[in-house]
Structure formats: structure tokens, C-alpha cells
Amino acid sequence: MCGIIGINSNKQVTASIINSLKKLEYRGYDSAGLATLSNGSINEIKTEGRVDKLEKSLLSQNIEGSIGIGHVRWATHGIPNSLNAHPHSSNNVSVVHNGIIENSTILKKFLIGKGHVFKSQTDTEVIVHLITEHLKTDSYVDAITKTLKSLHGSFALGILFKDEPDLIVGARRGSPLAVGYGPSENYLGSDSYALKSMTNKITYLNDGEFCFIKKDYVEFYNEEGIKINKKVLELSTDEKNYDKGEFKHFMAKEIEEQPLTVKNGIKEYIDSHNNDINIHNFPWKIEEISSITLIGCGTAYHSCLMAKYWFEELTSMEVNIDIASEFRYRKNRFKKDNLYVFVSQSGETADTYAALDLCNKNEMKTCAVVNVIESSIARDSKFILPIHCGTEIGVASTKAFLGQILILYIFALKIGVMKKDLDIKKFSEKLVELKKLPELIKETLLIDNKVQTIAGTFNEAKGSMYLGRGYSYPIALEGALKLKELSYIHAEGYPAGEMKHGPLALIEEGMPVVVLAPRDSYYKKTISNMQEVIARGAKVLLITNKSEDEVTSENIWETIEVESTNEDLLPFLLTIPLQKLAYYSALKKGFDIDKPRNLAKSVTVE
Ligand code: F6R
Asked: Which of the residues 93, 343, 368, 589 could staple to 296 if both were Cys, CB 3.0 to 4.6 A apart?
């Protein structure tokens, strides 16, 4: 959460900072601000809300400078107004911050005692005053080293100094930060995406490190303030993914891109020639692994739950799943023969990273299923399975979810065959079916008109439920999450068989209930559960797959049919109408689809 940019150049930087902040908005959009240095003073401008508003305010104020820092905020301490927006500045120092300072109350007391005056409710302001305090007696390197040592919590920082017209300091603990290199200018950014229009030469800071960004060079330091050398990475310069094209929203584009992203994933991992799965350089012998734990947050956690069904079906391994924010604080029994898999689109989610870090510290086997291969989770895992679905901009995850479950399915198949739990004939048949999936997704995407009409009814409801059994249960959870986050309608996903153990009490006349009942081995049971909710007045939207057999149940409000495939792959197709339902529901309500309220794309605070 929160996005940081810094530019040290010999040209004016305000327009480039605004440009980068627009790219960083997916990390937070509660407020925006920037600070530059000119004529020996810090100029600061901040607004509540989006970067567009900041850009408009800039028109009426003359903020110039060839060095500056900027920020988009996802509020943690203090309400999202312009006072709490970043940067925060004293006369001498200006700071942008991503993360949380856990000991800010104690530090604030100490600093007030020293005569410092605080303007905002944020935890960030203590950093400004601590640096200002240390600079009274220390060099810049010592002041930064001492300040960072006294901070508890997580942070990525960008710092500007009134008396140093050629210096931006960047520092990282827990939240990601990258340095970029340009011609006679250098940059600081929360991620390479923000810097990509300016450079493809990047260095990532590791935890505890800080850097001094000068116009012509960059110096790196470890947490003791000792100079270190770091590698410069060259990233691909492909930007075409970042354009909405003919679509109204990134989310619509990303939903429609799914046949292609699944096709790309299949191309990357399936060796059609040898009818096999390519998972190169897997660092362990298969006999060394007898169980697996899949860990993630939100949609990524739903991918883990989906994978649990497949791993249990296709392999003999014990399979556990966990929500990262729970895993990181529980008393885990670490097992050497367990593979810990971390699922994350961004690869920067703080809780997932902390869970990975815990496993690494306990010398466990760690594997990342990520979209952003330059991310912290990817870099610090012992093995990576990239999902290759391209940049996902919409805050609500769509194509990354299908990308994650695709790679997890492929991984389950491979482990099944490596462990000889899955015979070669079945394995080959499943690969044949899998290769047809992009075309089936494409066909299923053609359901728009019906979903648009149905979305209207959901919008009139107080709440709704999503029910599924077996392979459809994780998809019910994911569908409910999509509706909640986009249309702000209360929605709960439940295993269909659980309804009579309590939630059935919620069903009342006219309540929309989505029932996922594809013709799989759970079909008859789910249809019985569906009848139980219809009998209590629910308006059931049945989502099933095309079949010659008609659904025999009466009083179904609406039915949507997805294409047919084998039982393993139906979850991919069931996901499509649920994504569209959430999209059209939010569209009808006029909500901000790509940036739902209170959310951010990359959750780098715990
Ligand atoms: C929901 C959504 C979130 C993310 C979660 C984890 O649409 O996108 O629930 O799945 O914040 O994010 P990553 O996958 O980046 O670790």
C-alpha cells in the first residue's frame, strides 16, 4: 500500500512525478502529494483523493524543481485528508513513507520533549523529526542509520533535504523499493512499474538497506551505514499491457484477456511435443517431498483452496492451506519434507512475504507462484513458478486468479505423475483437455447480455450468497469476494452442504443466491441444497455447464450455462460469469471499478 516516487535530475521533475504517481495509484488512492526543492527551500503540495486532483492543484501553484519526491496514500494512521497526505516535512527534511511505524507514539513523545511540533496524525511525521534531530549533530549517513535503527515496523522511505540539492535517500524494511538509472538522472520507486516509462535499469533494495540517489550515481548502504555494491538488473521494456485499449475499464480488459493468459500459461509449461509438463530446475528430489502447504491472502488464498482439491485428487500428498496473516503468527510445526508454496499476484503482500520469511528462516523448502517475477516473494523463494498472465491493473484480481489456479493445476499434475500417483494415460488425457481450455473460456465469455440483466437484481438486494460443493466451493468464495469488493453488496460464499447448519436462517423471500452446480460428481447433492434455498424464497441463479440433460429442478430464477469440459477444469469456466456479474453490478451502480473504495492492489502493510 502507498506508492513512492523520487526523481533527481537536471530537468524539471514535477510532470514526471505526476506521471509516475498515476501509475502507482493501484497501490493507494486516498490522497496524493509531492515535494520539490527550489531556491533552497522545500515546496510541498498535497490533496485528498486522486492524482488527477493533485495535478489540477498544481496548475494554480508554481511548484518547480529538478529534484522531488511524490506519494499516493492508502491510509493507515490518520484519516485520508490533505493534512495527513504525504510528503511530511520539517523546515529541513521531507519524507514519503509506505508502511507502518509501530513505535510512533513513544517516538513522538520523545520528539515533542525535544521541542518538535507535529502537524498531522500520521506515524510518518516521527521519521521527519527524528532525521531533523539527528542531523543537528550527525552526518547524513549517520543520521539515516540512527533513524532507521530506532524505527519499529515496516517501511519504504523517500527523503529530500533542504540543504542537499543533489540527494534523495531511499530506505527499505519490509516494504518494497527500487532504484532506477537514467541519463544524468536517477530514480526511486515503490516498484519497477512506476519507473518503467523512464528506465528499464533497476536495482532492488533488500531489507535494512538504504541508498543515496545523486543525479549521476547511486550509493548503497547496509543497516550499519557501510557502503555496499548492488547489481543493476535490466527489465523488459514491454508496455503494451498497461493500456485499456477499447475497454472502459482495466477489469473488463483483464476478464476478456483470460483465454490469452491461459494460453500463454499452457505454452510456458506444457511440452506438447513430448506430452509432458516442463518444470525446469526444480531444486528438490520428489522423494524429499511428502506434503505441501499453500499460503496466500484474499483471492490468492482462494487459489490455494482450489489447489488443495486438485493436489488431493491427483497426488497422494497431505495438503494444507493457510491464510498468510494467520500462518505467520501461529505455532507452526515446520517439516523438512513439506513444500511451502506462496501464492501472490503482486509478490509483495506483506503477510505472505512474512510467512515466506518465516519458512526461509526455518530452512524450509519454499516455492512462489507469482505474477511479478521481480517481486520480493519471487526473489526470496527458493523456487518460482511464474503465472505469466501479464500486468494486472484492476484492483480486483481476475486474470491473475485464473493464472494462479492454472499453474497450480499444472503443478499438481506434474507432481502426481512424478510421484506415480497419476498414471501416464490419465495424465496425457488431462493434458489434451487442458489444451482446449483457452477456447472454452473464450466461448464462455460470450454470456454478457444475460449477466447484465441479472446484475440489476443483485443491486436491489441487501445481500446474497454463493454456494458450491467440491471444486465449485473455492469458486463460490471467489465469486462472493468479487461482488463484495466491486459493488459493495454483502455476499458470502458457503459450501452448499453447510447451509442447513446455520446460514439458511439468512434466506428470505427474493434474496439472490448463486448456486454453482456443474455436472460433476457433486451435482445431485448441490441440486438438493439448491432446492432447500428455493423452498425458503431464494431467487436462485444457477450456474452449470452445457449438457443434453435438462436441469430437473423447478422455480430456478435464472440459469447460466458455461461450456463443458472435464471435472478438473470446470472451475475455470464457472469463474467467468461470477467475474462478469460483479463487474456489471458495479458498472450499473456507477462505482469505480478499477479502484474500489478502501482497497489497493498491492497490500504491503500487515
Ligand atoms: C481480490 C484481491 C485480493 C488479493 C490479495 C493478495 O480481488 O485481489 O484479495 O488477492 O490482496 O494479493 P496478492 O495476490 O498480490 O498477494
From this structure: 343
